[in-house]
Amino acid sequence: MTLTVTLEGVCKSFAGKTVLEGVDIAVPASSSLVVLGGSGSGKSVMLKCILGLITPDAGRILIDGRDVAAMSRRERAALMDRIGMLFQNGALFDSLPVWENVCFKLLAQKRITRRGARDKAAEVLAQVGLAASVGDLSPAELSGGVQTREALARAVAAAPDLLFFDEPTTGLDPIMGAVIDGLIVDCVQRLGATAISITHDMASARRIGQRAAMIYKGRIVWDGPAASLGQTGNAMVDQFARGEREGPIGMELRR
Amino acid sequence: MVLGFLEGLGRAVLRACQEVGGLALFALEGLSHLVRPPFHGRQFLRHFIEVAYFSLPVVALTALFTGMVLALQSYTGFARFNAQSAVASVVALSVTRELGPVLAGLMVAGRIGAAMAAELGTMRVTDQIDALTTLSTDPMKYLVAPRLLAATLALPLLVLVADIIGIMGGYLVGTAKLGFVPALFLNSTWDVLETMDVVSGLVKAAVFGFVIALMGCWCGYRSRGGAQGVGMATTSAVVLASILILALDYVVTEAFFAQ
Questions:
Q1: Domain layout of chain A by residue ranges
Q2: pTM of the model
């Protein structure tokens, strides 16, 4: 069963600097939302708030209708079991081989033996287009694109109901970016999961999102179909989507 | 001006209290995971081998040369009072009670404390610690608790070896250079040593091992800001662990041998 995610007036500041200023957004079950925004706009902080890695100063985060902040440690752990996350640059564990990285969650939950984990890792690696032999390598031996695929394999190995993708195509060439996007869409569809991605790569946003929202100065300033990016009628979003220097975002930066 | 000075002083004191409180809570949380399942035996084993086995050459060489220098220094010093016969006793007591645990602690702080801080610091700045949380694994349980236990148990073993090698160093210099009769040197050593001398050194070692791992984990776990942050965490871990080792050495010695 997939999960819904709702943010109601979420605020977060660090050392007096406001990063999120009343974020409201709802993500229905089995839908895919892409959150756009420039560097430092609060995208990653929003994601970490949803994951419970950062506690918001104000507002509520509801997953499947339940307030994350009000959950007990055990309930939060149970929720985490249903979540998969692909971190920017992978965040793979250097001290473990690829197969152990991929099956880390299954091993931690004792849902699989170490021997079984090797077979499972080979199966999941195949789903992201990697050979089983990659499983025996160390993450440091892999290229950026292969590391991202491995991180994707790790995120989906435990068949989560809710998936997060933090800048999945950052640092990859356009072709590899398209490959990763295709794999993300395949994985999300296969699992029937709810997905929230954050990116500032427009091509990626159109490929992986059904819906898109733009965060600017800690607020959601637009929310609509991802396919309409660039022709939304919202000057700020269209400027960002087209990557134009002139526009309301530039004007505000110059002030 | 006076108010400004007091304000700054108050802020510094509050910050120090906050740091000490944070460290205490961090240590308690780490320790609490040692008695609450699940346990990460593989992680414990990995760090135990890292501390106990791979630190052995460094600690052994330190102990060997310390014992040798101690025999030489005490011989030349005691010769002024015609007390050269006390060399074996001084080497044995100094190594087991004091130099073995302290020097092993300092060497391990430089080697293991720095490595722990660098590894955890890198994991922090590359989101690997956050990744653990999303993979249903408590980072304190997986990263900190095994390191605390491994260092606490491994350092006494290292110090036991260091004690033997340190005394052997003194024996080598005493018999080969200073003209002691081998059997008499060993008999003097054996006669002067009491169980408490060795036990106090091993207790110190366990305390130092815990402190080294605690400072390594604490500094690494909280590091921020990329490579520079990791570098600062590593330096802090070694400096703080070294200072604490010397301070706690006095505290434990006082506890064991105060009249």
A1: 1-82+161-255, 88-159
A2: 0.89
